[in-house]
Design brief:
The complex is a heterodimer of chains A (310) and B (180). Chain A has 310 residues and is an all-alpha fold. Chain A is built from twelve helices and no strands. In chain A, helix 1 packs across helix 9 and helix 11 runs antiparallel to helix 12. The longest helix of chain A is centred in the first third of the chain and has 29 residues, at 7-35. Chain B is mainly β. Chain B is 14% helix and 52% strand. Chain B has helices at residues 2-18, 78-85, and strands at 20-25, 29-37, 40-46, 49-55, 63-69, 73-75, 97-108, 111-120, 123-134, 140-148, 164-172, 177-178. In chain B, strands 6-3-2-11-10-9-8-7-5-4-1-12 form a twelve-stranded antiparallel beta sheet. Classes of the chains: A mainly alpha (310), B mainly beta (180). The interface between A and B is medium-sized, with 21 and 20 residues.
Chain lengths: 310, 180
């Protein structure tokens, strides 16, 4: 068993990467449920996870929101860089492309927002599908940057399909997993992701996973108390899990096997058997327990593989 | 008139003849760093580098360019080495090379002061440090100085790892090849 980090670092991580995101996410999603019109079914969860994550990042600085560390945030420059990253053309010489990790929060937020728009009952089913496909294509190409695409041309398609599949499964089971079951399961999943990432010797990506776990914990508490589904956040998990694991696998140096990263990135797909359960039986403690077991089994296997390799 | 031309040509030839190229590699150039944190320190360096020095009669005419292979980074702990290569620090996958070019060498009271451009994580900053330099047939250079990693955007872990990193630079070439 590898040695744990020093105690003071663990306390620091627990405070700023778990507690702060959890409290802020809970407050934000509760406020959204209480005051936002239609918040219960659309935006409260996504809002809570996003604000909780940003609050943790204020202390941990795991994610950069400026293209260059020594320049202020520029919307135009970021937009131009995003355009080139997605399309592959139109990059002015003075803009240096940021690494893939820069785009991960934007891609996750984009999928969450597009997912909420696609839920509009006014839209026909075809339009919803087109929005979903277009969204995952853009997210996939943002995360798999031109440099990665030059090395593996098929990788962005695989990323887009992974996000789409994760997203559809999470959306489908979230309707039945009320009272915080799904956010609670995702909290545990992101904590296991953090444990794998620390085996890959990356504190930055470990922090990203831990802050997302903290934010999901806050949403889980609100969901449990409100006995409802603060919605919209499934897109964040569907994108952040495979995106984070791909970027970490690509940029870190460790003996953690590829399959460990894949198992975490695609863990939501393990919930697929639940969709075969008859609708009238998709509730109660047994259903939630089965969901937790299915969701966390591949992640536990990934952690075992990572620990034994390192 | 003819005499002046001959003298000028001789002078030019002499100037050219005195400039000598030496190749720099890991066997004749060493870069060692010491990173510190509140409760300890770690030592490491780079196993691969490549470059060229152009030495003349005087150390003040020294030119030097070196490219460092960041993937060859090593330290006193293999797990730390992996961590240092990650996006937390050197981000080796995105920035595989670091570069250093001497732009000026000036004589001062204690020896020489070297000024140069250091490129790390894609950012170039001018640095200046004292050095002992000798260019008698071969180049020897010894310098110990500090750089601030946050100047290059290496900001992760501030508070847990000190910003200032000590660098020890040693160059000791064999006899130089004359430049034609």
């Amino acid at each position: 068993m590898p040695a744990l980090p020093p105690f003071e670092l663990l306390v620091d991580a627990a405070l700023y990467a778990v507690f702060v995101p959890a409290v802020v996410a809970a407050a934000a999603s509760w406020a959204a449920l209480r005051f936002m019109r239609g918040g219960r079914t659309t935006a409260a969860g996504a809002w809570g996870v996003a604000i909780g994550f940003l609050a943790g990042n204020c202390f941990r600085h795991a994610v950069e929101f400026r293209i260059a560390f020594d320049r202020p945030f520029s919307i135009v420059e970021s937009f131009v860089a995003a355009w080139y990253t997605v399309t592959g053309f139109g990059l002015p010489a003075h803009i240096v492309l940021p690494p893939a990790r820069f785009w991960l929060p934007w891609a996750s937020a984009f999928v969450a927002v597009a997912g909420m728009l696609a839920q509009s009952p006014r839209l026909p089913a075809v339009a919803r599908r087109l929005i979903a496909i277009g969204t995952v294509v853009i997210a996939g190409r943002l995360i798999v940057t031109p440099a990665m695409r030059a090395e593996f041309p098929w990788l962005w398609v695989a990323m887009a399909l992974a996000i789409l599949a994760n997203w559809q499964v999470l959306e489908a089971v979230s309707r039945d997993l009320t009272s915080g079951s799904l956010p609670g399961g995702l909290t545990a999943l992101f904590l296991l992701a953090a444990a794998v990432l620390i085996q890959a010797h990356t504190a930055r990506f470990t922090d990203v996973a831990t802050m997302l776990a903290g934010a999901w914990l806050g949403v889980a508490v609100v969901s449990f108390v409100a006995n409802g589904i603060p919605g919209g956040a499934q897109g964040i998990a569907a994108t952040a899990l495979p995106g984070l694991m791909l970027i970490a696998q690509d940029t870190t140096f460790s003996a953690v096997p590829l399959v460990a990263f894949v198992l975490i990135g695609l863990a939501p797909l393990a919930l697929t058997p639940l969709l075969m359960v008859p609708v009238q039986r998709r509730s109660g403690g047994k259903f939630a327990t089965a969901a937790w077991a299915l969701l966390l089994t591949p992640a536990c296997a990934a952690l075992l593989l990572a620990v034994s390799a390192e | 008139m003819k005499t002046i031309a001959v003298v000028a040509l001789c002078g030019l030839w002499a100037g050219v003849a005195l400039a000598e190229d030496v190749k720099l590699a890991a066997d004749n150039a060493k870069i060692v760093w010491t990173g510190t944190k509140p409760n300890g320190k770690h030592v490491g360096g780079f196993k691969k580098l490549a470059g060229k020095a152009v030495i003349a009669d005087e150390p003040t005419d020294l030119k030097l360019d070196v490219e460092i292979d960041c993937a060859s980074l090593y330290s006193d702990d293999p797990k730390l080495t992996a961590h240092l290569k990650s996006p937390d620090f050197f981000s080796v996958k995105e920035h595989p090379k670091a570069k250093f070019s001497i732009t000026a060498v000036e004589k001062d009271d204690s020896g020489y002061r070297v000024t140069g451009d250091l490129t790390l994580l894609g950012k170039t900053k001018e640095i200046s440090f004292p050095a002992e330099i000798s260019v008698k047939g071969k180049l020897t250079l010894a310098a110990d100085f500090k750089i601030n990693r946050s100047d290059y955007g290496m900001t992760f872990g501030q508070g847990m790892v000190d910003d200032e990193v000590s660098i020890s630079l040693r160059v000791a070439t064999k006899a130089a090849k004359k430049k034609s």
